[in-house]
Amino acid sequence: IAEMKRVPYHIQRDVLDELGVDQVAEKSDFKISAKEKFREAVRCTGPRFKSCFLSFVPLLTWLPRYPFRENAIGDLISGISVGIMHLPQGMAYALLAAVPPVFGLYSSFYPILIYFIFGTSKHISVGTYAVMSVMIGSVTERLAPDSDFMIPGNDTNSTSLDIVSRDAERVKIAATVTFLSGIFQLLLGLVRFGFVVTYLSEPLVRAYTTAAAIHVIVSQLKYSFGINPQRYSGPLSLIYTIIEDCALLGQTNIGTLVVSIVTIIGLVAAKELSALAARKIPIPIPVELITIIIATVVSWQMDLKTEYVQPTTILQAPVAPAVSLLGSMVGDAFALAVVGYGIAISLGRIFALKYAYKVDSNQELIALGLSNSIGGLFNCFAISCSMSRSMVQVSTGGKSQVAGAISALVILVILLKIGELFEELPKAVLAAIIYVNLQGMMKQFGDIRSLWRTNKVDMVVWVMTLILTVLFNPDMGLAASIAFSILTVVFRTQLPKYSILGQVPGTDIYKPVEDYNQVKEIPGIMIFHSSATLYFANAEMYIDALYEKTGVDVAKLLSHKKKLEAKRLRKEKKAAKKAKKEAKKRAKEAVKAAEDVGAVEVGPDPDTDTTLPQAIILDLSPVNFLDTVGVKTLRNIYKDYGEAGVQVYFCGCQRGVVESMEKGDFFNEKVTKSILFSSVHDAVLYCQQGNSEEVIQGTHL
Amino acid sequence: IAEMKRVPYHIQRDVLDELGVDQVAEKSDFKISAKEKFREAVRCTGPRFKSCFLSFVPLLTWLPRYPFRENAIGDLISGISVGIMHLPQGMAYALLAAVPPVFGLYSSFYPILIYFIFGTSKHISVGTYAVMSVMIGSVTERLAPDSDFMIPGNDTNSTSLDIVSRDAERVKIAATVTFLSGIFQLLLGLVRFGFVVTYLSEPLVRAYTTAAAIHVIVSQLKYSFGINPQRYSGPLSLIYTIIEDCALLGQTNIGTLVVSIVTIIGLVAAKELSALAARKIPIPIPVELITIIIATVVSWQMDLKTEYVQPTTILQAPVAPAVSLLGSMVGDAFALAVVGYGIAISLGRIFALKYAYKVDSNQELIALGLSNSIGGLFNCFAISCSMSRSMVQVSTGGKSQVAGAISALVILVILLKIGELFEELPKAVLAAIIYVNLQGMMKQFGDIRSLWRTNKVDMVVWVMTLILTVLFNPDMGLAASIAFSILTVVFRTQLPKYSILGQVPGTDIYKPVEDYNQVKEIPGIMIFHSSATLYFANAEMYIDALYEKTGVDVAKLLSHKKKLEAKRLRKEKKAAKKAKKEAKKRAKEAVKAAEDVGAVEVGPDPDTDTTLPQAIILDLSPVNFLDTVGVKTLRNIYKDYGEAGVQVYFCGCQRGVVESMEKGDFFNEKVTKSILFSSVHDAVLYCQQGNSEEVIQGTHL
């Protein structure tokens, strides 16, 4: 350790050159960039086609190697359990999407089979998802509102709703927006843009799903109370809907309300019981299915009025998406694509981490994209994956995508055999199922408390995401929330902590002097440190803080500069006069004058000598990048202090920072790279060597 | 130097404690925060009231000390020169604001007098400004379009424009939006929010003014060609206006076009000549004034048709702003407030730096706010400061705000004595004056080339600002541009450069191994460095890059973990069996089993021993802050590698980063702060001490 050399940046470069150290090509092999990802995607042609095709259809890779004896029974039981869950969830979420329940069953069938072929996650249960369904619902209700389907009633004054054509239109809209979102996912997957999901930070996703759950609940209140409020869309529609609901509370259908309350209480109680019984029974009790069956029977007995219209055929042929509608739903489809992918990949990653395999984010995008785009052709609505179903799939022994395929078969049997039995199911029961399923998302409100304790900025992101998503709708709210969470990066670096560093006695470690009493500043040398990158949003503050900490007033510094200037001019005049008078001694005098000028410019001024340090070292190690404002700021600092006779050194610059300075013409003949140092200590030693012996002794005794 | 100790973070803390080093209070005195700025503002009451009042009215401070003999003549000459410039600019920019020219003269009078009292910059020439005027114009033309003022003509089919009432309405609108923008500036100044201007980075301001100049030029084309296109407002209005102008080119008034071309050529030629003559004549030739006088005379002689309506009184009493209009112009007024302040403060700072005095950004906000709000009451439109006039003010010897006051007096004389003479001035001439004045802003297109060379991201900001401001209007464009420039901070840190650091031989300096051939990795220790802050947008990439560089597959790591898990379970079973069999030796065996478990968990696995490093050091010095995603990422890295028997150390953490880790529950009984080190070298030495003697010798021989 003792022999270690402290070398400034330039010397070190020279040393490296002498040692035959060449700088390797500009671009590192390791650099992971979007460009390379794209190249990798493009490379997927030619000789590597076969392996590429296999990675595009993961089924071909894993199915031949399927360990039948080990996994088959687990997958079968798990598949049936999940299939049984799909039934009530699919029907209930169809209500959210504002389409007839049977389309929820379609959505629990086609997309799952496609994901089985293309998906890479073994444990997530793709299918209907509350948040996606409510997003679809906002599109269908906006583009096909009830008011468009009023037909003259029996007597001339009244009109009645044409439910059949309204539902047909809504199914078309839901299928089209689903198709489009699938295409978006497919495109994002093909250009390997899976990383877009990184903008969905965890606090954002959790707040967003909570806000979406609030939207879901508000949209279902009408079914629980049996009222018929006006539909609203656009920003603040949630507020308007609540106001409308409250205004209509007087018209509550008591029967419906009783059914709702009884169902909710029953469901909660049954869930608690099944949680208690979970230790003894390995397979969860299909509480929702039982509820639906009971409700259907009761409803059939009591002849409760419902609005259901069963489509004539159970399985329909694929239909082309409504091209004319595409333009009006681009934004919604993109939001669906991003949210659906975001939810699926984050759940997929959790299970992949737990069970030690890898989920390919781009392949997931392709799998979901195909599920949605093909599903859209079969009148499905957009799917993602559901936390509750995935938990059941795993806990009942599901070990691969086969469980998903079996659950799809369960849905197929139900569709073909007993689907029409559920025709009589009251919407209040489905709404109750939805509420109870959203428990988990409501529990996420606890995040506020834990984030308050751990990270306040992230708490603000959480709260703002909730507010923005509740006030605007899920699509606009997502965009606004992402924009806000990106803004926080600026907030976090805009008000950095500035500090003066001092030496920890006897070491080469430099720490902020205000943090430790014994850390001492080095006489004559000021080491300035900012906790954040220097860029346009905090450049001015950086200079202000530096001036304040160095105890220098800009005005003072500059008046000093002016004085020097005036002095210089006087000297020059004097020199010129002398030169005129003594023509023969001209050459000699001019040299002297020039020397005087040099001395005045470089030497510290006697007026400011007591306050100004001899050297300032800027610790730039936290600087991530330099923009033009940053380069200009450093240049001004160097120039201003230089004119006042204070030398400025920079240390800890990353290579990218040095490159930005080079490109920004920071360096020239006068300002060379000799002012750059690898570490604070190097710079300090260099300063001390340059100064008188006394200073060095002063600090090192 | 030789005795310097390398100590890990925790040891160092202990040492500091022993030395009696207490951590100083949490909040540093030096910390500059918005909170403190606010406090400072609040503190401005009570005993300090007098000095506070003086700082609120800078005139009271500097006027009594005005060095009459030194400054008076310079200020007088400069004031007259600037006043002469105010006249044509005020009239021309009134055209941009879509109000009669005399209101441009008002705007060159009242606000300047008020700034004289409250302003702190000695050299800027406040008054009408092209960009502000065109922003006002977009408001007036949106809220009072020509179509609202059509009155039935003489014959029943035709309608004619009621110019008098249209202009009266437009003046009212312009005055109201000016008043409101002044109130915004005043409020921002009172709460000391002068720092908002930091979001206006230099590339953004330059591109924005260029884009505004394009808006100005397009809005004036109709006067140069003598055509009457339809007015457009809102996004893309510039494009529509150009299309409309092109369609109407056939109707060009040849006389007007000739006047335009002659004026432009004349102005450019005269400016070139005056630039050439500048060395001989100290005062610039008032080219524009001469042009206006000539044009007025010619127009009066040739009886060119104009639309001017002179208000009945020259100086009007103040009028209350139109409160009913306030709601519809909040956004425009805010944009005006920000832009006006941004331009004024940036010019003010340039001169302050040059002439060594200080411009108080909050006092500037107050001064501009009062100028605009009081000006608005006197039917002025919003002012800022003009580069060209300021340059003239300085070059003709202006030394203080007195020059501004004199220029206002010049305008007053013109208003009272000869204002009505300019009644006949054709708009084509004013348009020509505007074009020629915008030369400088058009030259800013050269920025693209220089930014391309120096900083590509800033070039993208420039181009995007131009496009956004041209496509949307200046108000929306400003918001979009600021949002985009903030986004670039994320772009810049989202794709960091990841590298493995190695030791520069014989020193304690660590550099990326891919940059230098001779920099060698330390056997068994991997030092990982990211060029950017670790946060939600790049957390996943960080982990991926780390896994890639360490040559570890996540799956491999996790399957290894599972193996360990299985092993542990088997051992536990074995131990349990043994315990059952040999009941009397139970206590002893249990201890052994526990020891075995511990050994298996901690020790490196023989399978992966060859590929995995023994320790990983993460260099976190470029990390500015840690969000919850960042803390979680570090925790996962520590846990995953820890389970595979690889110890992870962090070094170079800033205090804020350590605090975020503490709050985020990163540390517990098992994970203590002993994994934190001050520098890479400290961590390396600690690792080597912990390992076998051979390794240390290997690296240090």
UniProtKB/TrEMBL annotation, chains A, B:
CDD domains: STAS_SulP_like_sulfate_transporter. PROSITE patterns: SLC26A, STAS. One of its GO terms (molecular function) is secondary active sulfate transmembrane transporter activity. It is found in: Membrane. Its main location: membrane. The chain crosses the membrane at residues 93-118, 173-195, 248-269, 281-302, 333-353, 365-389, 401-418, 462-491. Pfam families: STAS, Sulfate_transp. Keywords: Coiled coil, Membrane, Transmembrane, Transmembrane helix. InterPro entries: S04_transporter_CS, SLC26A/SulP_dom, SLC26A/SulP_fam, STAS_dom, STAS_dom_sf. One of its GO terms (cellular component) is membrane. SUPFAM superfamilies: SpoIIaa-like. It is a multi-pass membrane protein. Residues 559-597 form a coiled coil. It comes from the Eukaryota. Residues 515-687 form the STAS domain. NCBIfam families: sulP. This is Solute carrier family 26 member 6. It comes from Cyprinus carpio carpio.
